[in-house]
Amino acid sequence: MKRKEDYKTRRVNFRISEDEYQFMMDCLSKTTCNSISEYTRKIILALPITKTCRNQSLDALMEELIRLRKELKRIVGQYTRMADRLPALQRTEASGNWLFAFNIEKEALFNTVDKIHTHIQKIAETCLQ
Question: Over the stretch 42-76, which tens digit does the pLDDT of each residue have?
Fold first, then answer.
């Protein structure tokens, strides 16, 4: 339970230019503060601010891996749905179209897995340096 002193009841408003705001947001992004209020409060009260150190190249690789993971999940979902329909198909005209689409999804899945493998190798090389 919060103590009475912990509640923020007073409000302070001030105006800044767009350039000042962008500068403040850039500074905020380099800290562990969760909000602009927390960051501003620490600056005004001269409290310590913890800055983060990030590896920009590793961040780019992680963003790419996240994108590839989403794509992989989508392809695997489609592939699984298609595989589930396989036993229900009889030798009909639709089965030829289905097999064609199934092979396209399989190739997309394998290509995405290869991309992920390549990025994981890059991350491993970066981390082992």
Answer: 888 888 888 776 666 677 777 777 787 788 788 77
Contact 98, 84 (CB under 8 A): no
Structure token digits, residue 22: 């962008």
Pull the structure tokens for residue 61: 């690789």
3-state DSSP assignment of residue 74: helix
User: d(Cα 62, Cα 71) in Å, to the nearest integer?
Assistant: 14
Taking CB atoms within 8 Å and a gap of at least 24, the contacts of 103-109 are 105/75, 105/78, 105/79, 106/79, 108/75, 109/72, 109/75, 109/76, 109/79
Q: Which residues contact 106 (CB under 8 A, 6 or more apart)?
A: 79
Helix (H, G, I), strand (E, B) or coil at 16: coil
**pTM of the predicted structure, to 2 decimals:** 0.42
Q: Answer yes or no: are the C-beta atoms of 64 and 119 closer than 8 Å.
A: yes
CA dihedral 7, 11, 15, 20 (to 10 degrees): -10
